[in-house]
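Priority: medium. Attachment 1 of 2:
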């Protein structure tokens, strides 16, 4: 008879959920990359006053890329 009452085990992830999780991580990284580099490309191509407002998306893109890589 075992004296272990509860055993801490992480449940095994099914392949379908692993593929969906991987795809969502890649999508999050690509979206973060687009939010980071997109405003800089807009500023390079069109030096309009309104394109400076797109720089507000840059911190959100950096946060998304860092957050997605930490998992």
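Attachment 2 of 2:
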């Amino acid at each position: 008879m075992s004296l272990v009452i509860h055993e801490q085990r992480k449940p095994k992830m099914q392949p379908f959920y692993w593929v969906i999780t991987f795809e969502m991580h890649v999508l999050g990284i690509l979206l973060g990359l687009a939010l980071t580099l997109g405003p800089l490309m807009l500023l390079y191509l069109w030096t309009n006053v309104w394109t400076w407002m797109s720089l507000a998306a840059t911190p959100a893109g950096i946060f998304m890329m860092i957050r997605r890589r930490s998992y």
